[in-house]
Amino acid sequence: MPVEEFVAGWISGAAGLILGHPLDTVKVRLQTQNVYRGIVDCVIKTYQRESVLGFFKGMSFPICSVAVVNSVLFGTYSNSLLLLSSTSHQDRKAQPPNYGHIFVAGSIAGFVQAYCLAPFDLIKVRLQNQTEPRARPGVAPSHYRGPLHCARTILREEGPRGLFRGAWALVLRDTPSLGLYFLTYEGLSWWLTSDGKERGSATMLVAGGFAGIISWVVATPLDVVKARMQMDGLKQQEYRGLLDCMVSSARQEGPGVFFRGLTLNSARAFPVNAVTFFSYEHLLRFLS
Ligand SMILES: CN(C)C(=N)NCCC[C@H](N)C(=O)O
Predict the structure, then answer these.
(1) What is the pLDDT of residue 283?
(2) Which residues sit with their C-beta closer than 6 Å to ligand 1?
């Protein structure tokens, strides 16, 4: 089992995460809170109330967990592809990719990583949604004082299952969208690289960026449902399940609700995933 795929996945994921977190915070708030008139309004209110630090709420935990999550994603993808096509990362560069195998391996990786990601993502979303300014004397503290306090509080208030709120929506979001993610990356990389040549840095950046945009466009409707399910239960429980969340969100806010955060998801997807694939490929070359 190629260990370097796991290591490269971890480091590249951390690089992408730091780059995209501020936009991710704005997106999560727009998807779950009906108090903003749009992206600019949310950015201004966040800055005024919480300063620039508000955009980085909930980032420390994903920086640690990305080690697990991204190495599981890239490691499972690469090893599933190895099983399906019996070719290593090096051999695959010399022959045309089998797109069916790539989609299936990406979907398996998406399914597996969604389960690892679920509790970390839930904690990130809960912390990102705390709009109180930093704790000061005389100002009421936030419900959660940090990632570990958040995990402990969820366990106490909602039980162990509380940590997996929204996990099904996450699995449904990531299984097909990650199949598409790797399919787009491999397809574009193959198309942009002349026969017999090594994949170039510009190719990695462009293919990674478009893989991010296409997969996030497809993933956004379930991303909205996932974020709402994850916030459900904090005050009271509003939804009876995934389907109920979809139906009542559409009834109350119209079908457009499923595209909330689409612009931000697409805007952050290009740089985040360009950097992720670029560092992943270069780290793999360096490690193997
Ligand atoms: C559509 N989805 C869920 C994905 N493409 N996921 C994989 C890329 C994740 C990357 N850290 C990002 O946040 O874009």
Answers:
(1) 84
(2) 13, 16, 20, 174, 177-178, 181, 212, 215-216, 219, 269, 272-273
